[in-house]
Amino acid sequence: MSKTLIIGLGTGRCGSLSLSYFLNNQPGIKVLHEGAINYQAHPLKWYNDHENVWKWIENLDKLSDSNQYFGDIGMYFLPYVAFLIEKFPRSKFICLKREREAVIHSYLQWTQDHNPWYEHNGKTWKKNEVWDASFPKFNESDKAKAVGLYWDMYYEKIEKLIEKYPQNICCFQTESLNEVNSRNALLDFIEYDGDRNLKGQYHTHKKRAIFAKLRRNFAEVSISLGKRILPKFVRHQLWIKFAKFFYY
């Protein structure tokens, strides 16, 4: 296979959408975010979904057209890393790591009355037919604790995979996406030899960092309010359109 498969990893709520914007700004790279085509996500299952993962990668290859780098970004690819490396030895996996408490807080805001980390009957928590199967399950009914266990498990597995496949997997702190050196390092890792577009907002001093935090807080409040008054498909399209201004 002459093309290079790129898979983005991370717990979710960790900057993966920003990663997709950055990669897609590079000539010759085409990656999806959580399988979204025409604003419709196509998540995979966390457990025992190897056949669908394989079919999805083949589909991504076809969608990539003449681009030499193709792939997708989603937390649910973690259980299939070894499987994909066996199929595509030159594949590259880019993991983002955001602070544990920030991820927990963001997920609690984002999921609200859903809990995909715990097997439940739909009475205390609402079921989500699209996303519930994309997360691992824990024997912990307290959602905040379950998200914490998820974060711990995720990055423990990432560390072990990096030890085993150092040429295939790397992990960056989410904040490093705002640094030119880190963006170059990321492109070096995937052995990208095209023209590099490193433009973007770089929070190089305290005032900009504070302003960025205020924008993110505003975004989370807007999302919370939007869930109460806007239909789901409208919220999703608005998120795709404006998220980069808050998180990129």
In terms of quaternary structure, what is this? single chain
Order of helices and strands: EHEHEHEHHEHHH
Rounded to an integer, what's the Rg over CA atoms?
18 Å
**Uncertain runs:** 202-209, 244-248
**CATH class division of the domain at 2-98 and 154-188:** Alpha Beta
Number of strands: 5
Q: Give the second-level CATH assignment, the architecture of the domain at 2-98 and 154-188.
A: 3-Layer(aba) Sandwich
Distance between the termini: 32 Å
CATH homologous superfamily caption of the domain at 2-98 and 154-188: P-loop containing nucleotide triphosphate hydrolases
Mean pLDDT: 88
Report the biggest beta sheet as strand number plus sense, adding barrel if it closes.
5 strands, parallel
Q: What is the number of helical segments per DSSP (H or I, 4+ residues)?
A: 8
Order of neighbouring strands in the sheet with most strands: 2-3-1-4-5
Quote the CATH topology of the domain at 2-98 and 154-188: Rossmann fold
InterPro entries: P-loop_NTPase (IPR027417), Sulfotransfer_4 (IPR040632)
Protein name: Sulfotransferase
Pfam families: Sulfotransfer_4
Please supply descriptive tags for the structure shown above.
8 helices; about 250 residues; 5-stranded parallel β-sheet; Rossmann fold; 5 strands; disordered C terminus; alpha/beta; about 10% strand
